[in-house]
Write a structure and sequence with these properties.
The chain has one domain: Thiol Ester Dehydrase, Chain A, CATH 3.10.129.10. Helices cover about 25% and strands about 35% of the residues. The protein has 3 helices and 5 strands, in the order βααββββα. It has a 5-stranded antiparallel beta sheet with strand order 1-3-4-5-2. Strand 3 and strand 4 form a beta hairpin. This is YbgC/FadM family acyl-CoA thioesterase. Pfam families: 4HBT_2.
Length: about 140
């Protein structure tokens, strides 16, 4: 994808604690950036995630995380994580994520996160709610 394929971005400035002995962001932190961007994406949409879990008894389990590293991110770099829903299946949501130089087209990496909706008592899969589908659908319709 390209930067223009994303409508939501969340900014970060790389902290010293996030780099490794080579002076680049330690690989596991990319997933932290992704997770934070997804959380902020929900917040941007006005969705109270914790209230939803309490009300429905459902939550999402991570079942897949993928990071394709293209360019090293260094200490004090200013970055932005683009986040969008790539697909909503019957019980799953697939997020596409990419990290860019802040305000630029230069991309550091691409990624994919897949969540499966589950009943928190049984831990069995449940269909993604209409509420979630409509929230993401409304956001995408605004873009057109």
């Amino acid at each position: 994808m390209a930067r223009q394929d994303f409508r939501f971005f969340f900014p970060f400035r790389v902290r010293y604690s996030e780099i490794d002995g080579q002076g680049v962001v330690f690989n596991a932190h990319y997933l932290t950036y992704f997770d934070t961007a997804i959380t902020e994406f929900f917040r941007h949409l006005g969705f109270d995630y914790q209230a939803y879990v309490a009300r429905t008894g459902q939550d999402f389990h991570l079942v897949k995380s993928l990071v394709l590293y293209e360019k090293p991110i260094l200490f004090d770099d200013q970055i932005e994580v683009g986040c969008r829903v790539q697909k909503i299946g019957r019980t799953s949501i697939t997020f596409a994520l990419e990290i860019f130089v802040k305000g630029e087209e230069t991309r550091y990496c691409t990624g994919e996160i897949v969540w499966v909706n589950t009943d928190q008592t049984t831990h069995k899969t449940e269909p993604v709610s209409d509420e979630i589908r409509e929230m993401f659908g409304a956001f995408e319709v605004e873009a057109t």
